Give the backbone structure.
Amino acid sequence: MEAFTVVESVLVPLDRANVDTDAIIPKQFLKTLSRQGLGQYLFYDWRYREQESHMVPNPGFILNQDPYRNGRILLTRENFGCGSSREHAPWALADYGIRAIVAPGFAEIFANNCVQNGILLVSLYEADVEGLFRKTAAMKGLSARIDLAEQILRTGDGQVYPFHMDPSVKHKLLHGLDDIQVTLQYQEDIRAYEAGRRLQMPWLFRET
């Protein structure tokens, strides 16, 4: 998994609350077990519309507009990622290029899935998020820089927004570790424990 240190990008304002995982990646795209290629389907029902039996980009959706097409920091509202627990949602976000999401709060299972896929979730006070939305409306293309080590979001106009981060989550993101990779750091200890158990309780390991 790609480590997260610093990301700089235009802020992409998605002014919607309670965005569920089916909106992030609709159910018809869940057949794959690959993390690659799902970015094209991110926010599919919002990014595209049917025209003469073909799906074409919806010019009214923020990711189809300049300068937001290649944005890497998403600004959104409360309870982002609610709904089903599908891990395809962070897969689609990561494959599209989203590295960080800023909101007042996130659905719990979605938040954990994002950590496992290298996406930083920045929780700010609702008043601060509201202020950022006002800024993005007044200054189209407002940039932001997020420094995870310092736990600071700094906007292009110089405003600084500190944010809280669980130390264990911060460690995983800074070092590009998911839960399996964290566990593998202790593989020698695990092997030693298993060898000791085999000596202490050999009857548990008899082959049938």
In short: The chain has a mean pLDDT of 93. The chain has one domain: 6-177. The longest helix spans residues 187-200.
